[in-house]
Amino acid sequence: MAHTPQAKYRKDYQAPSFTISDLELTFNLFDKETTVTAVSTVKQLSDSTSLVLDGESMSLKEVQINGEVWSDYQLTDTGLTINAMPGDCELTIVTQVNPEENSALEGLYKSGGAFCTQCEAEGFRRITYYLDRPDVLAKFTTTVIADKNEYPYLLSNGNRVEEGEAESGRHWVKWQDPHPKPAYLFALVAGDFDVLRDDYVTKSGRKVDLEIFVDKGNLDRANHAMVSLINSMKWDEERFNLEYDLDIYMIVAVDFFNMGAMENKGLNVFNSKYVLANDQTATDTDYLGIEAVIGHEYFHNWTGNRVTCRDWFQLSLKEGLTVFRDQEFSSDLGSRAVNRINNVRIIRGPQFAEDASPMSHPIRPDKVIEMNNFYTLTVYEKGSEVIRMMHTLLGEKAFQQGMTLYFERHDGTAATCEDFVSAMEDASGVDLKQFRLWYSQSGTPKVTVSSEYNQDEKTYSLTIMQLTSPTLDQKEKQPLHIPFDIELYDQLGHVIPLQCNGLKVGNVLNVTQEQETFVFENVTSKPVPSLLREFSAPVILEYDYSDDELIFLMSHAQNEFARWDAGQMLLAKYIKSNVANVQNGGAVNIEATVVDAFRGVLLSDKLEPAFIAEVLSLPSHNEVSGWYEAVDVDAIADVLKQIKVTLAKELSDELSAIYYSLNQSEYTIEHSAIGQRALRNVCLSYLAHTDGGETLVSAQYENSNNMTDTIAAMNCANMAKLKCRESLMEDYSNKWSHDGLVMDKWFTLQGTNPSSDALNIIKKTMDHSAFSIKNPNRTRSLIGAFLNGNPVQFHDKSGEGYRFAGEIIRELNSSNPQVASRLIDPLLKYRKYDAERQALIKEQLESLKSLDNLAKDLYEKVNKALES
Ligand code: B3K
Ligand code: ZN
Question: What is the predicted pLDDT for the residue at 1?
């Protein structure tokens, strides 16, 4: 490669030598040659007379200072250094960019017929030369000029202040954002849309216009997004006392987008996947995803925009906190237990896997080559768990006081993670000194618990040991402050009050040592402990539960999450023992008592259907793989399949009865209806493996009046390899091939096809009229699903899956490095596979490494993986 990419270190942070207080931007939009004029009011903050601006992938047309042409500058691959700066001044820079050729979807690009931008983390530097760092906050005024016919809507951040006609059928609109912001929150959109309009009156009585822009013809798919937005605005006022601060809030849905959505001030740009939904095109999961992402971006207005990050190492300051807020929003609106279960599945599955991979990093990374590589499950999801632990330690009231203090201190500024923790500490008086290690230490702690009951003393002791194994990025680990939530039950299922040293104690133990023992008094019989309730810390729990204890907890634990978790632990025991059986040539075996425990949950009339559905959902192949140092792909797949088949046979009468009883004539998205469909479709996923499965699945597809049930049927046909699979797939494709977003579900089914011919079919599918490798949603649905969700075929011993992945990643390296860098993740974990597979994967990594034009996104990951 031309230049070796350089790493940046958190410890090297330096305040900027110059800042920009005001920025006036003018965009003259053309497909191939857009001219950007940027007039900055520059303030000198140090003695330096050289202003170093960031910039790449554009051409510089002119530099002026205070209206005079300036030629004393140097242009490099990464920016522009302006020499002999006359102190405070007005700096004008004219650049030209090519939106149409911008396939990386960073900076200004074209999505379908519309212009749009994506600037976080460092995309603004592809628009103009600028101080593209989050601690430089300026007031933006933006004028957008474009053809009036093609681009009737010209949008940017803030309030629309002026508009007018220009020559040659063009027009212009001027926007002013009164809130100073870093460049990453800038946005521009120009296009022709259908608009859904509504408004919201804030609690202090201000009216806010709400506008959702969608592709023409999609208006009937925008309602749920609008309802979700209004719910978000209301919820943030009620729970966090936070009100919106502009007169208008706009959301634009675009088809070409590298991630989910972007919280640009007043003008969110969204992947259309997280806006568009109606009952015929979207599943319940899509609806819930839209609610969560709309909420997430809205909540960023305070946690992200009003208080932003000082530098990108602090990313979790806004992301961990905003994920926590969106999780709470979804939990307050829907089922708290089901939300918690799904969030915990993400941590225990892919986040733990990331911690154990060559990309392991703390939630606040210390070293970064490409910032886009750090929008990770660790920063987001584990970051949210860290906020949640503080919430657990402080309680809601003190936590909210901490939030208030945080805003009092930092509103309108760029802050650090340390600032956040200090505010929480100062507002509550809770000592978070040792807790701060969660920000700097990577890896997953393993917490091993043992217990002892003393009949004579009536005491019960829990000895808790914690150990975080070394990770690639960090060899030395220290004990963390772990909030460890427990409950003890007597044999009848009554809660035993917790008492230590003669005093009543709460459920949350403060575990701070490598090893410590908690002794509980007045325990009159040997209890069953419920440990790490609510998953009170992102750790791996080890406790030697008997089957009977787990079955007891499944029905007696007070807390729904703990019941689910007991079921998962029971399944885990059987999955592990059966993997060993299968590896030794034995058969899969499950005790009748275990089957009965699941039968009990299935038949319960006290539990919510949505919750029962979660209890009956087996852990994914990926999650199970994470339990092993050396993964036996086929044995795990075999065991998961056989457990499914066994439960299906043993419980077929009950499954079938419940399946029929939950039939709904009309589709609504009320939470209870979603829960009933979830349970019904889980039943179907088991019944698909029984004799009548083929008929039942076909009939559900035929009779379905909504996308949730349609996709559920197709998914069953896929996973159970039913004969009807092909005809259902064909029917669906005939119906939807004009709509890429709806076809994504079909592409995912092709990607996860368990058939041994899957890879050939996938290659052919790439010629489907609805597929384009240029569109990240399509690529993730088909190819991402194959790499991440089809373990047996992807890891086929022939190495064909790896070669295919290598080819695709090489192609995307040139066209869209961010997407390439997401796709490569499963290859980074090659050390977990057998020697032949390792060699085959390494071959692909080496071939990428040798590319002349290797993007720094891939450079960073490939090198780390090969170093490991
Ligand atoms: N802040 C954006 C993510 C930007 C990703 C840049 N590669 C969306 C979000 O977290 O809300
Ligand atoms: Zn976010």
Answer: 55
Tens-digit pLDDT profile for residues 451-510 = 999 999 999 999 999 999 999 999 999 999 999 999 999 999 999 999 999 999 999 999
Q: Is residue 397 classed exposed, middle or buried when 0-12, 13-18 and 19+ CB atoms within 10 A define those classes?
A: exposed
> In this structure, which residue's CA is closest to atom 3 in ligand 1?
262
- Which atom of ligand 1 sits closest to the CA of residue 258? 7
Residue 755: per-residue pLDDT: 98
Q: CA–CA separation, 287 vs 222, rounded Å?
A: 11
Q: Is 318 in the pocket of ligand 1 (CB under 6 A)?
A: no
Ligand nearest to the CA of 376: 1
Let me know: does 246 contact 266? Beta carbons within 8 Å. Answer: yes
**pTM summary value:** 0.99
The residue whose CA is least distant from atom 7 of ligand 1 is: 372
Dihedral angle computed from the Cα positions of residues 671, 325, 302 and 251, in that order, rounded to the nearest 10 degrees: -40
Does pLDDT of 542 surpass 70? yes
Task: Give residue-wise pLDDT tens across range 271-289.
Answer: 999 999 999 999 999 999 9
List own/partner pairs for 795-803 with CB under 8 A and 24 or more apart: 795/633, 795/833, 795/837, 796/756, 796/759, 797/836, 797/837, 799/837, 799/840, 799/843, 800/759, 801/759, 802/827, 802/837, 802/840, 802/841, 802/843, 802/844, 803/840, 803/844
Expressed in angstroms and rounded, the spacing between residue 640 Cα and the centre of ligand 2 is 34
* Three-state secondary structure call for residue 64: strand
Distance CA 817, CA 853 (A): 11
Distance from C-alpha of 5 to C-alpha of 849, rounded to nearest angstrom: 13
Query: If phi over 0 gives left and psi between -120 and 50 gives alpha, with beta otherwise, what is residue 501?
Result: left
How does DSSP classify residue 365? Answer: -
> Which ligand is nearest to the Cα of residue 120, counting in written order?
1
- Structure token digits, residue 688: 């698909």
Residue with tokens 């797949």: 637
Specify the long-range contacts of residues 520-523, CB closer than 8 Å, at least 24 apart.
520/459, 520/460, 520/461, 520/462, 520/488, 520/496, 521/458, 521/459, 522/458, 522/496, 522/497, 523/453, 523/458, 523/459, 523/460, 523/488, 523/496
